[in-house]
Amino acid sequence: MNPNYVGDGEHNNEQMQSQKRQRTVGLTIRRRWIAPDPTMRVIHVLRRQPPCRHRVGKIDGDRGATQRRETKRMQHKGFYSMFKGSISIICLDFETPLNAQPINQGVYGSTALKHVLPALSINTVTMSLGEDPHSEPPSLVISTVLSLMAYNYPAEKISVYLSDDGGSILTFYALWEASLFAKHWIPFCKRYNIEPRSPAAYFSESDGHQDLCSPEEWSLIREMYEAMTERIDTAVLSGKISEEVKANDKGFHEWDQENTSKNHQATVQILIEGKDKNANDDEGNVLPTLVYMAREKRPQHHHNFKAGAMNALIRVSSVISNSPIIMNVDCDMYSNNCDTIRDALCFFLDEEMGHKIGFVQFPQNYNNLTKNNIYGNSHQVTNQLLNLKVLMGGMDSVGGPMYVGTGCFHRREILCGRRFTEDYKEDWDGGIKDKTQENIDEIEEKAKSLAASTYEHDTQWGDEIGIKYGYPAEDIITGLEIHCRGWKSVHSNPPRPAFLGVAPTTLAQTLLQHKRWSEGSFSIFLSKYCPFMFGHGKIKLRHQMGYSIYGLWAPNSIPTLYYVIIPSLALLKGISLFPEITSPWITPFIYVLCVKNMYSLYEALSCGDTLKGWWNEQRMWMVRRITSYLYGLTDTVRKLLGLSKMTFAVTSKVSEQNESKRYEQEIMEFGSSAPEYVIIATVALLNLICLVGGLSQILTGGRNILLNVFSPQLILCGMLVITNIPFYEAMFVRKDKGRIPFSVTLASIGFGMLALLVPIV
Fold first, then answer.
1. Is 227 found in the same domain as 318?
2. In terms of domains, do 91 and 120 share one?
3. Both 303 and 193 in a single domain?
4. Domain contains 354
5. 736 and 675 assigned to the same domain
6. CA-derived radius of gyration, the chain
7. Which of 494, 517, 625, 754 is most exposed, with the fewest beta carbons within 10 Å of its own?
8. Strand, helix or coil at 500?
9. Are strands 158-164 and 120-126 parallel, antiparallel or unpaired?
């Protein structure tokens, strides 16, 4: 690994001939780039290379370019009211998608010999265990780690690193327990080829009768796992580790009474050394290397959140394994496919195109979604085309998908700043350092120096090297810069999902997650990393548009608020915003509305979603935009004005028993007086009042004339009321603890009355 390197060289601008290529693993031994000492500091300004331009022929694949219709505002001076109505329709179809050709990336059987398979560093990060053990429970984290250690891949070429940003002794204890259980779990998985290889997921899905193992062996391994998790959970509840346990490993002595989650020394402990002859499983096979890392944190030094932790892992792994491939995954995204590593390497090792691939991105999938996806957390095709399966597949045709922060395989060299050159070759036969002459204690001390809080001072880490700093969505910027340095990426979505995580199970968690995403993306759009400016002349325009879709999430809150409020208020006040129902001018509005929703429904059903699931997604589309995206917009503006600082909010991975039960029954969870709920309740009540008032005017006035004039607004307001039915139930019908509190209902009634007094003309 080279933290100081920016490659030289010019691109070969010859246009490549397009052709279908079978994704098979190459067997050629290639020249290896020798990395300088990773401890070398960068104190000079790295020079920039000219923009990388590389013309690539159109890749063959199924053409699925999605057509979108845009409604142009009425230009005729006599149609002012029609212009106002057109804004609502524009709001409905506000986002301009990537007009690309989705490519179905597939992999075929690997023909690679064992000795040419590259070594791999698997990095996973926890962000809150030191402060709140319940947001990312240690038992969940180690289940993910165990699944990552059990891949169908040579164990001596796998190194798993866990970064504990809270520096908690409870996390270290849980990982120490996992290192002992791995000796039994990994051979059990490989002997019977079980899936998934996360013990928590496996034992929740299997009763042992469908497996090849005997019931006695299945019961034994389950009892061992449950005993381990019970010991871990007991330690978490008590908040301390017994002296008996501490005597079993020298690593426990790294903690003292003065350690806190925000003020602690650097800790690096190699729990399993893959090169150690004694580090074998029950069957005598080599175990993967397992490393615990807690980077140093001091109150006087900014730690740069998740990006800082990932960069520390890049440096620490360079002195322990220095694998040419780095895979990173969130601590709650366990491996669901034991062949994922080989699938990813099929792209990297392709003899014709592999040298152009900088990273391979797998989609995010979840294992706890309800049948009808109550909170719209599925990443299947949705009505906005902002999911991984379509958008990412479409981006493959213009340079590749963006990096989404988890489930991704990177070349180590591109994370160290290397630019793409046509003559770039990689020798995959290597990467694991030979430490037979180096003491483990010496390696750990050297690694600790790389995880020091002052190490990055006066260096290019977080700027030219590693994961980028300064923005909540550091992953998007990192991927964008990799693409701008000339590298391509690939989106791989195998039939069996590569990773499965935990989706938010309450409305509050869902809104918090989308607030963080929208805020981070919008702050990038307003920065020097705006895809249209930073990517100009480096990546294609359609690629820039694909990146910009996410950056426009937050500002979309404004037209959406107009869409759900103004037409309904105009109906109540007797103001027509749309052409009459008998007018030919109404045709574009009806056409856009019908075609968009029919196509969205077709996409959802074709991807296995249900009709009710699609309807829930429409509801969440509205809710996220008037709450999460609105807060993301305002918080970004406040940061630009210097009124607030960047924070990193962690979505909780657990919920209470009653909350889980309501989630399984697909009952929306409120239960608190959050400001977001006031907005939701106010909009719902406002639409109900306007619908009742509008119908009253129509029934008491000239029925035929008013219906002809106000039918479009009446239909729109009526659909919004139907969409908001779960909110009315939560305010006036439900009696459980997950209902909307009375204080929120009272506040929303007050704000609704005030909104009725606002003039709209």
1. yes
2. no
3. yes
4. yes
5. yes
6. 28
7. 754
8. strand
9. parallel
Inside any domain, residue 381: no
Domain annotation covers residue 606: yes
Q: 206: how many CB neighbours lie within 10 A of its CB?
A: 15
Query: Catalytic pick from 164, 165, 332, 396?
Result: 165
At residue 45, φ and ψ (nearest 5 deg) are -80, 125
The residues, ordered by sequence, that sit 6+ positions from 185 with a Cβ below 8 Å of its Cβ are 146, 150, 199, 221, 225
pLDDT class for 123, splitting at 50, 70, 90? very high
Residues annotated in a binding site for Mn(2+): 306, 330
Helix (H) / strand (E) element for 499: namely strand 499-500
Contact 420, 400 (CB under 8 A): no
Q: Which residues contact 331 (CB under 8 A, 6 or more apart)?
A: 124, 125, 126, 136, 140, 141, 144, 162
Helix (H, G, I), strand (E, B) or coil at 392: helix
Claim: this prediction has a pTM higher than 0.90: no
If one compares 658 and 62, the residue with the highest pLDDT of the two is: 658
How many Cα neighbours within 13 Å face the side chain of 705? 5
Same domain, 492 and 550: no
* CATH at 234: 3.90.550.10
CA distance 141 to 164: 10
Residue 697's pLDDT band, with cuts at 50, 70 and 90, is: confident
pLDDT tens digits along 250-265: 989 888 777 888 888 9
Pick the closest to residue 287 from 192, 178, 150, 195 (CA basis). Answer: 150
d(CA 217, CA 567): 65
The token pair that represents 413 in the structure block: 């060299």
Chain centroid to Cα 181, Å, comes to 29
d(CA 60, CA 57): 9
CB 580 within 8 A of CB 649: no
Angstrom distance (rounded) from CA 594 to CA 160: 50
In angstroms, rounded to a whole number, what is the distance separating the alpha carbons of residues 451 and 437?
Answer: 23
Which is catalytic among the residues 164, 350, 475, 635?
475
Final residue in a domain of this structure, among 483, 503, 523: 503
Domain containing 88 equals 80-100+543-756
CA distance 559 to 551: 15
233 catalytically annotated: no
Residue 251 shares a structural domain with residue 317: yes
Please say which residue of 477, 503, 529 terminates a domain. Answer: 503
User: How confident is residue 759, by pLDDT bands cut at 50, 70 and 90?
Assistant: confident
- CB 481 within 8 Å of CB 531: no
3-state secondary structure of 121: strand
What three-state secondary structure class fits 541? helix
From CA 7, how far away is CA 422, in angstroms rounded?
12
Spell out a b/e string for 253-287, using b for 16 or more CB atoms within 10 Å of the CB, else e: ebbeeebebeebbbbbbbbbbbbeeebebeeeebb
Q: What is the pLDDT of residues 1-56, one digit of tens each?
A: 444 443 443 333 343 333 333 333 333 323 333 333 433 333 232 333 333 333 33
Q: Provide the annotated binding site for UDP-alpha-D-glucose.
A: 136, 165
282 is an active site residue:
no
Q: Which residues are annotated as a binding site?
A: 136, 165, 306, 330
Round to whole Å and give the CA distance between 538 and 178.
Answer: 45
Coil/strand/helix, residue 724: coil
Q: How are beta strands 357-361 and 408-411 bridged, if at all?
A: antiparallel
Considering its fold, how many domains does the chain have in total? 2
CA 294 → CA 130, 303, 609, distances in Å? 11, 12, 41
Angle in degrees, 0-180, between the axes of helices 541-551 and 507-525, rounded to the nearest 10: 130
Residue 188: inside a domain, yes or no? yes
Edge-to-edge strands, sheet with 488-491: 267-272, 289-294, 158-164, 120-126, 325-330, 408-411, 357-361, 488-491
Whether residue 94 is found in the same domain as residue 133? no
Structure tokens at 102: 């989705």
86 and 141 share one domain: no
- Backbone φ, ψ for residue 501 (5° rounding): -125, -165
Residue 331 φ then ψ, to 5°: -70, -15
